[in-house]
Amino acid sequence: MSTHFGSTQPTHAAILEWVKKVASLTKPDMIFWCDGTEGEKSYLLSQAVQGGVLHPLNQKKWPGCYYHRSHPNDVARAEQHTFICTENKEEAGPTNNWTEPKKMYQKLYEILQGSMQGRTLFVVPYLMGPPQSTLSKVGIELTDSIYVVLNMRIMTRVGAVAYQQLFHENGFNRGIHSLLDCSLDRRFICHFPTDNAIISVGSGYGGNALLGKKCLALRIGSVLGKKQGWLAEHMLLLCVESPSGEKFYVAAAFPSACGKTNFAMMIPPKALQGWTITTIGDDIAWMHPGSDGRLHAINPETGYFGVIPGTSRQSNPNAMRCIEKDTLFTNVAVTLDGDVWWEGKDGTPPDNLLDWQGNPWDPKSEKKAAHPNGRFTASMYNNPMLAGEVDNPQGVPIDAIIFGGRRATTIPLVFEAFNWIHGVYIGSTVSSEMTAAAFGETGQVRRDPMAMLPFCGYNMGSYFQHWLNIGRRIATPPRIFHVNLFRKDNDGNYLWPGYSENMRILKWVIGRCKNSTGASESPIGWIPSYQDLDWAGLSEVTPEKFDQLMKIDPEEWFHELTSQGELFMKIYPTLPKELIYQRELLIARL
Ligand code: SAT
Ligand code: MN
């Protein structure tokens, strides 16, 4: 077994010992210590191309860009194969798959036995969060997938920067990932919160394999947050600057593939001149009560792993700029001359496309050219509207938290919680139609509390209690809102234009935070009247349409409350009484 050390040698005995132990189990041909340098990147790219894992795109059109095609059964998060392994089942709670740690380790070690034979074991030291931030965390991922390494280099800070932040010999998350042969019966994404460890086998897909992302930053992160008094959330982070130069920071939680990336990169419409939005993050926020009595957030990531279908110069010009160079495209359609295409891209599809599985694509067929969960991996530093605050070790003070889901009916465009506890109740009852980001029945409505159903690493009821506790620790809590950008009319057409026009909602939200905008009381919270929103340059949403968007139909809401009740029953033993009380108050108001 040969070893390649990069430019930074690890000196921590705990790391060296652990890598040796994993190598003796998995038996790779080579151990490659990653250092995150540019030199390493060219080497890895050439190796990935040689091994057929990546295909270079036309470098004139797409400089530094490559294309990857997944195994067809490995294109989304695998929730049925995802486990939280704690001593007691109650710790993981009824919304997670659970297995006892000892049993699961045994099974995984059997699977990992010799699993890297003929392959290279890459050691990827990475930092989640800005350097020199007390809020940041170190992880080390051992993986036999070069695609994972190249993605991790974009999504996290890899190399010496991670070792430098390692203040305790054992203060890092241990992640082991092996691709195996992608068979479903040997696919396990397992979390061991007590050991700060993750083992993921049998999948190379983003959320299952880039262990810094959902596994560390959310599932393990949420458990650490519970213990240490902070929140790990599935939220975008953005900065809104008003025409007078005042800045506001907003965090928003939407389920996967519901537009967080587009929302985080929103460009305000021309008619709302002087308003600017800059992006801090598009997927994950770590939020800590600060000494100033406010909630401070960092984005632990450095890149965007975004859904590509539907991305265009019209829908998200900043994302299009992000992916112009140095981007990895996964499961899109390609042309023979190295161009890429996906549903919803500007213009018409080029001739002679190969679909995401590599088959000639017939434009007349029903089949999609790109996979609906096709992705781009791009550095946030390519974003022309990246917020200057993104590397700030202290994070940014949050003014507003927005929850949202994808709902064709029932839920109004926007409403505001009466207070923090009511806001936690609203977050706990988020629901959404399922998307292609996870295996399952797309379109089906499911409860997705705080957009964290697949990502909360412990009992959901205790998680709600933790939210309530955090509220007591901040003197000036953020205001809490709920949006539904996906309501439809009776003919199935979207009522709200979305994208840039979402700025009108944000402007109302900011106005509420400043106590400068009106709202009326409704059974479900504060709601805007037509005149409370800025309609400059938008005639499409008439007062009648707005009424449809904002309609609160008691009958629909009784269905909604029944469905909320089902979730609450499921987690009843740990459900905070405050939330039961909030639900009863809502019933009374309706
Ligand atoms: O695949 S990821 O989990 O990284 C994206 C998502 O589903 O939110
Ligand atoms: Mn996500």
Structural overview:
This protein starts with a strand and ends with a helix. The longest helix has 17 residues. Helix 11 runs antiparallel to helix 12. A hairpin with a 2-residue loop joins strand 30 and strand 31. Strands 1, 2, 5, 6, 7, 8, 9, 10, 11 and 12 form a ten-stranded mixed sheet that branches. The protein has 16 helices and 31 strands. The protein is globular. It has 590 residues and is α/β, with parallel strands linked by helices. It folds into two domains: 199 residues, Phosphoenolpyruvate Carboxykinase, domain 1 (3-Layer(aba) Sandwich); 272 residues, Phosphoenolpyruvate Carboxykinase, domain 3 (Alpha-Beta Complex). It binds sulfoacetic acid (SAT) and manganese (II) ion. Manganese (II) ion (MN) binds next to loops.
Quickly describe the structure.
With 590 residues, the chain is α/β, with parallel strands linked by helices. Bound molecules: sulfoacetic acid (SAT) and manganese (II) ion (MN). Sulfoacetic acid (SAT) binds next to helix 7 and helix 8.
